[in-house]
Amino acid sequence: MKKVLIILDFIFESICALLLLIMTGAVFLQVFCRYVLVSPIGWTEEIARGALIWITFLGTYLAFRRGMHIKISLLIEKLSPILKKICYILSLFSISIISIVLINNGFIFTFKFGNMSASSLDIPMKFFYIVIPLAGISFMIFIIWESLKLFLENKKR
Known about the structure:
Elements: H1 2-36, H2 43-65, H3 73-77, H4 81-113, H5 126-129, H6 131-156
Helix pairs in contact: 1-2, 2-6, 4-6
């Protein structure tokens, strides 16, 4: 399971890096064409928006995976080890609920609006929106891994 998470991280990091490069290039091209050539290009905005959607959801998963999400560490540091573990379990539980909502509503949203096409690119919007349930599934994989680690750690004691 750990190898799956490492591979998933590598894939998501690579996708985010590539999309960041594409988004930066699209925005630069848009600014150049709009202000230097005085002839804006419409499709660059859609590319940048789609890349931003993917970077946001995949980046959120990567930040959560590394423990870089927003947390109140000052309060947690003052708790006893058992209370720290309880807080961690509660955070995993709450994030699993959010993940289920992402998966469920993400698929609903993708199938409901996915057949619409981007106006300039003429590609289905489902390619932009499918990242929502994908991120939710990724969160769930990590939560299952963390839960198994906690369970096995308690079983050893």
